[in-house]
Design a protein that fits this description.
Length: 272
């Protein structure tokens, strides 16, 4: 098979500048896109843009800029941009049909970022998992549990199920129950609980502490105790009260009974 060297050289002379120009456009264009994306990221950090929204916006801007660079490089080969967009749209539609579940997670992620039922740093309970939100991605939300496990929950599952945000309000009550024996003095026990609550530095002393007899149980009289505190001090209050109520009850001679049950033995007549 004969080769026409002159035609090959003509093709090289014709397309070599275009190829070289497209490569230079891609390299410089991607570099500029990364630079702009970095500048925008720093600007958002400087202006205290929501930590939940900033990574998502920065990612979308970076992808959009790189897509524009690709379109520019394609046009250098004489490809009509409208045709390229049509091909890209058809490809995106086909991929979309194959990834319907992921697209629903992406849509849910956008809704989460828009309506803000929680933010990065909030402690939430959802789908049977609880933890601090570390990152809200396009498809998933990443949480860290109290024992430092990482939980990745699809955004679609979060958006379609009940969600409890434990840190949205700046203050909250700490619900606790303390039981005393039936022989103990209720007023004395209430006074002891009040003194312990007053000594806790984490409790908001400007708010009244609920100390109510909530139940006459099988073996104890139960107090419902609900002091107010800052949300971040919830566990400090809980652990302080559990330890110091026990110590104060011991000093006051107030018993905390174990579960008790009366057992009656019946013997047939003539047997004991």
């Amino acid at each position: 098979m004969d080769f026409d060297i002159s035609k090959i050289l003509d093709q090289v002379y014709t397309y070599a500048p275009k190829v070289l120009g497209a490569i230079i456009t891609l390299v410089i264009g991607f570099w500029i896109a990364g630079l702009i994306s970095s500048k925008i990221k720093k600007s958002m950090e400087k202006n205290n843009v929501d930590k939940s929204l900033a990574p998502f916006l920065n990612s979308m801007i970076n992808i959009t800029l790189k897509l524009l660079v690709l379109l520019s490089a394609a046009s250098m080969f004489g490809i009509e941009v409208t045709s390229f967009i049509a091909i890209f749209s058809a490809l995106a539609f086909a991929i979309g049909l194959a990834l319907q579940g992921n697209l629903s997670h992406m849509a849910a992620g956008i809704l989460i970022l828009f309506f803000k039922p929680f933010r990065v740093g909030d402690f939430i309970v959802t789908n049977g998992y609880s933890g601090t939100v570390k990152e809200i991605q396009i498809f998933n939300t990443i949480m860290t549990t109290l024992d430092n496990r990482v939980i990745i929950v699809p955004n679609g599952a979060i958006a379609s199920n009940p969600l409890e945000n434990l840190t949205m309000n700046p203050i909250r009550k700490v619900p606790m129950t303390f039981g005393i024996s039936y022989g103990a003095d209720i007023d004395q026990a209430r006074s002891v609980i009040e003194k312990v609550a007053a000594s806790c530095e984490f409790i908001d002393q400007s708010q009244p502490v609920d100390i109510l007899v909530s139940e006459l149980g099988d073996s104890s009289v139960n107090f419902a105790v609900r002091p107010w505190c800052k949300t971040e001090d919830f566990w400090n209050v809980h652990f302080y009260m559990q330890e110091n109520i026990k110590k104060a009850f011991d000093q006051a001679g107030i018993g905390i009974p174990f579960p008790q049950r009366d057992v009656h033995h019946f013997y047939p007549e003539g047997k004991a």
